[in-house]
Amino acid sequence: MLADRRHQLILRALRADGPISVVALAEKVGASQATIRRDLVQLEDEGLLKRVYGGAAPVVGEDDPFADVAGVRAEAKDALAAWCADLVRDGETVLLDIGTTAHRVARHLHGRSLTVITSNLAVYEELQDDKDVQLILLGGVVRRDYRSLVGFLTEDNLRQVHADRLFLGTSGVRPDGQVLDTTAVEVPVKRAMIAASAQVVLLADAGKFPGTGMARVCGPEELDVVVTNAPVDEKTGSRLREAGVEVVEV
């Protein structure tokens, strides 16, 4: 079994069962205990779980509820959202990530001949009555406070679709270009969105450099464009451009 598949099964087991032993994981995944231990080391390094004696435990998220974040840096987020909406061409299929900035992108897409795919309940509510937009809501477990859908159903749905571009949110961008999130449960969905998209556009206002987060979503090589509202610090900007990322200051 490929490592990525093992990691997916390990994270699913943690989401479903909570803390679990190496022995139990080895049985569930069908791998040796030595292999599972190496997997746990890697997943902990990526911030996706916490190793405990004899096994692993899920990481408890530290993100803020949607309503609390919606008004933070609202003007900056709206400027980023407007630029991203202008990037979209009629007839495209667009993936919108969770979060308040993606919701603002949706506000600028009204009346457009588009297909929008999302796990963001705020985006769904924004566009549900717009007959010009074909709206696809991904399945999954509802996180009510965070207005999102997560879990293996969401990830499985994403493997069945392809988008022209993804507008991806983040909690922070490290100086080495690594994209972070504060909540491990959202990370597999974000990764599945990246895999389903021809172009990945990261929306990161000035507060996201370096921002917060302990779970790694992706490296700079998986991004195509970073849109921000302030000059990116020299080290981060250099790393992004080295990876072929277009950095746009709105």
3D structure, described in words:
The radius of gyration is 18 Å and the shape is globular. It has helices at 3-17, 22-29, 33-45, 66-69, 74-87, 100-107, 121-127, 152-158, 187-195, 234-242, and strands spanning 20-21, 49-52, 55-58, 93-96, 114-118, 133-137, 141-143, 148-150, 165-168, 172-173, 179-181, 200-203, 215-218, 225-228, 246-249. α7 (121-127) links the parallel β5 (114-118) and β6 (133-137). It is built from 10 helices and 15 strands. 38% of the residues lie in helices and 22% in strands. It comes from Streptomyces cellulosae. GO terms for molecular function: DNA binding.
Question: Any chance you could write out the topology, listing elements then pairs?
Answer:
Layout: H1 3-17, E1 20-21, H2 22-29, H3 33-45, E2 49-52, E3 55-58, H4 66-69, H5 74-87, E4 93-96, H6 100-107, E5 114-118, H7 121-127, E6 133-137, E7 141-143, E8 148-150, H8 152-158, E9 165-168, E10 172-173, E11 179-181, H9 187-195, E12 200-203, E13 215-218, E14 225-228, H10 234-242, E15 246-249
Parallel strand pairs: 4-5, 4-9, 5-6, 9-12, 12-14, 14-15
Antiparallel strand pairs: 1-3, 2-3, 7-8, 10-11, 11-13
Helix pairs in contact: 2-3, 5-6, 6-7, 8-9
